[in-house]
Design a protein that fits this description.
alpha/beta, 10-stranded mixed β-sheet
Length: 390
């Protein structure tokens, strides 16, 4: 069975950075979908943290209708991530009411009706494709497992908002990440904070502190003003050149190590005050490797998204893309990141594909052999990807 996996569409983004909302940019994906047996949407399909779900659903409907026609009777699998965890919460809530629920394993396969009303809508829109929900991931092949990857935030050393939220929740619940060994451990800490953030956006659009725009501005300041053309680097967007902007940037940069030290003292770490492009990549891969080891994924190929950073790419150190060995010496999981379909200006260079954050990547899984990256938007210039104002 040929399976095409893509992640992080973020349909409904208030910044309009979600590229598959535009027919001309989802066309290459639809052509690719015509030649596979199954498509897996690997989480963060919708952006449910920016405003009411109805807004994201309105943007998503044409995409699902087009994808359903392209698949025409074949299978579409929908996996929830952290930005659209609300898609699976109704099922999780019903499970919590059951007097003796089954163990929450690596793969729960659900009908749309079992999963949630939201996924039922996807199934209606995507007809004649057959829709299945999976959580927290799916075994694509006996040796290939795919999940969104949001559990990695529990082990991340970069002080993102998500990582800090995990730290607070872990302390409140008395469940430190170093003790995790099951899917239920990860869900116990992450699901409550996802529910809270979705609730904040349910009835009105959220402000910059919650929708991520404020975080992007901080990253831009910390990343510096130059443009790193290295494949493993990033390309920060234009910074505010005003006096106030320069002073604000200087304050963020100088205060960052102090803030990280304070967070570590508060027990929210371990965190590092390094946000270089190399550390962003390495920290994410180390954290995902930790997840695969704790969940017993051994030497499987593990396809994930979440970080938006495609890989491994030519020039990457492939050792970074291997999870830790087991105590008995067995090889660790082999990581593959499906990238994203969003325009993240802070990370993009001018040349198509030069940045590992260039959008438009899928992962193709055949009946045998390693998963392969398919970069479907390399023929588009950066100007063609830039969000179009409403």
């Amino acid at each position: 069975m040929r399976t095409l996996i893509l992640s992080d569409l973020h349909l409904g983004s208030v910044s309009r950075s979600d590229l598959v909302r535009r027919p001309e940019l989802r066309a290459p994906l639809l052509r690719a979908a015509e030649h596979v047996d199954r498509v897996v949407l690997l989480g963060d399909v919708l952006e449910l943290r920016h405003g009411p779900p109805r807004e994201a659903l309105a943007v998503a409907r044409p995409f699902f209708e087009d994808l359903g026609r392209a698949l025409a009777g074949r299978e579409l699998v929908v996996v929830a991530g952290n930005h659209d965890h609300a898609m699976i919460e109704p099922w999780l809530a019903r499970r919590a009411e059951h007097p003796a629920p089954d163990v929450l394993g690596l793969e729960q396969l659900l009908t749309p009706a079992e999963a949630s009303p939201m996924i039922e809508r996807f199934a209606d829109w995507a007809a004649p494709a057959t829709v299945t929900a999976a959580y927290p991931g799916i075994w694509v092949r006996p040796d290939v497992y795919a999940m969104h990857g949001h559990y990695l935030d529990c082990h991340l050393t970069i002080p993102t908002i998500e990582r800090l939220s995990v730290g607070v929740m872990s302390r409140l619940l008395g469940r430190p990440p170093h003790s995790f060994g099951t899917v239920e451990d990860y869900e116990a800490v992450t699901a409550p904070m996802y529910s809270w953030r979705h609730a904040m956006a349910r009835d009105a659009r959220t402000g910059n502190a919650l929708n991520g725009i404020g975080t992007v501005r901080a990253w831009r300041a910390l990343a510096g003003s130059g443009r790193d053309r290295n494949r493993n680097g990033s390309a920060p967007g234009r910074r505010d050149s005003s006096l106030a902007g320069r002073l604000r940037t200087r304050a963020i940069v100088s205060g960052f190590p102090v803030a990280v030290a304070a967070l570590n003292r508060a027990g929210l770490g371990p965190l590092r005050p390094n946000v270089s492009s190399g550390e962003l990549r390495g920290a994410g891969l180390r954290a995902m490797g930790e997840v695969t080891a704790r969940l017993g994924l051994d030497d499987a190929y593990v396809v994930f998204g979440h970080t938006h950073r495609t890989g491994p790419l030519p020039g990457d150190d492939e050792r970074e893309w291997n999870g830790p060995q087991s105590p008995g010496g067995a090889p660790g999981a082999r990581l593959v990141n499906a990238g994203c379909w969003t325009y993240d200006s802070i990370f993009l260079t001018t040349s198509p594909g030069e940045s590992p954050y260039w959008p438009g990547t899928c992962v193709l899984v055949e009946d045998s052999g390693p998963p392969t990256l398919q970069r479907l938007l390399l023929d588009r210039a950066r100007a063609q990807l830039k969000p179009v104002p409403a």
